[in-house]
Design goal:
Elements lengths: L3 H39 L8 E7 L4 E6 L8 E7 L7 E5 L7 E4 L10 E2 L3 H4 L6 E9 L5 E3 L7 E2 L2
Antiparallel strand pairs: 1-2, 2-5, 3-4, 3-7, 4-6, 7-8, 7-9
């Protein structure tokens, strides 16, 4: 006579194992694209780039940005200029700032804009109490540009 209870225990164990494997496969198919997208966003060196606004000249509409150690190549910077919450003009300036370099964005003594900015700082018109923050622009492996998060410590012009 066969022991039917032993056979049903084996079948139950095999079914639980198969269901567990199927659940892992389904989860992997759903989660994998999210992991890959996050990985692509982090492939640039946004996490390592250290930029800070160190000064602003309200008379000549100039902003000085210092780059700290670390990070890879950057294609430029985006200056976020804020007077109030509703108004945040930006100036995208293309200048591959080197590590530990300090660069001044704005106009020269002759009034000519010497940085390749999409919106000149003279047009924005920097005045006192403006808060200026900076974000790096990096080039991803696929050739697209990505604007990193701002430094988080805006400089208040005085």
């Amino acid at each position: 006579m066969l022991n039917k209870k032993a056979i049903s225990a084996v079948v139950t164990t095999v079914l639980i194992i198969l269901i567990s494997i199927a659940a892992v496969i389904i989860l992997w198919v759903v989660i994998r694209p999210m992991i890959e997208q996050t990985g692509n966003a982090l492939t640039g060196s946004c996490l390592d780039v250290q930029l800070e606004v160190t000064g602003c000249d309200t008379t000549n509409n100039r902003v000085t940005v210092r780059r700290g150690a670390g990070g890879g190549d950057i294609a430029g910077v985006t200056l976020l200029i804020q007077k109030d919450i509703d108004d945040v003009p930006t100036a995208k300036c293309i200048h591959s700032q080197e590590v530990l370099e300090t660069h001044t964005f704005g106009t020269t003594a002759t009034g000519k804009d010497y940085t390749d900015c999409t919106q000149t700082l003279a047009t924005i018109g920097i005045t006192t109490d403006y808060e200026i923050d900076v974000a790096a622009i990096i080039t991803l492996e696929n050739g697209e540009e990505q604007v990193c998060n701002p430094s988080g410590t805006p400089y208040t012009c005085s």
